[in-house]
Specification:
With 111 residues, this protein is mainly α. The protein is built from five helices and no strands. The longest helix is centred in the middle third of the chain and has 28 residues, at 43-70.
Length: 111
Amino acid sequence: MKRNLFLLLSVAGIILPMSQFIPASISGEFTVGSMFAEMTASRTITGVTFDFLVVVVTALTFGIAESVRLKIRWAWICLVGTFLIGASFGFPFFLFLREGALAKRQSRAEP
């Protein structure tokens, strides 16, 4: 159940941001330069940006460490997905993979 929720959240993490980024890119509204300008447009937005960056770095650090510990084979998708799509995809998809790895580990440990 929990694993399916993480998969659903990772799909939402692709669809929701891309529903905004793709049309903005096509219309010429979205560029990397404009994104950085908007991320620092005010102190409030800059604070939110810094908050988000700390969360992303923490999630990536945790994800890498857990992937090594649990030998999660497809964890690289989370890393690439975080940079290409966003943390809204990368972190839930990592949790989906992690739940699978934990279940597999537990089934091996049971007699």
